[in-house]
Amino acid sequence: MILSPPSTVWGLLSAGHRYGEWVTGTQQVVSTDPHWPDVGARLQVRVGVGPLVLDDTCVVRICEPQRRLELEAKAGPFGAARIAMKLIPWAESTLFVLDWHPLRGPGTRMHGFPVDYVVSIRNGMMLTKLARIAVSEQRAGTGNGTGTGTHADDGAAPGGTRSR
């Protein structure tokens, strides 16, 4: 659960240039199509750890503003994955559901434990960052995904944010 309304969370999802703030492993947002997050729009990012970097392209496959965003992440020789994000209003908060599934490449053969375990840790870190930014912006009154603050409270209700 993210303790901010879907409009605030959607503001962050629809600001492609801000993905580096909350998507774990993103070193740089290289470019964002001006019509992001419309279907077909692309977001190019550089991902990695230390000197091991890879350019990745995310393409919007489904966009239902303030409800659902599905991306296809293409990571060169590593293949592609589907990333589905769903926002469910819950009082003044948002139940944020994240689903990741390999589509092509070596990831399809490695899907399962231990890869899924590592991905779940990464997704948990990512969702904590997203919640922290959303709550901070809601408190600051920006709430539209364009502010940049952070706050000590992580913004996630215990046990409420789910990723798979």
TrEMBL record:
Annotated stretches, region: Disordered: 140-164
Gene3D superfamilies from the UniProt entry: 3.30.530.20
Bias type Low complexity, positions: 155-164
Source taxon at top rank: Bacteria
Coiled coil: none
Protein known as: Polyketide cyclase
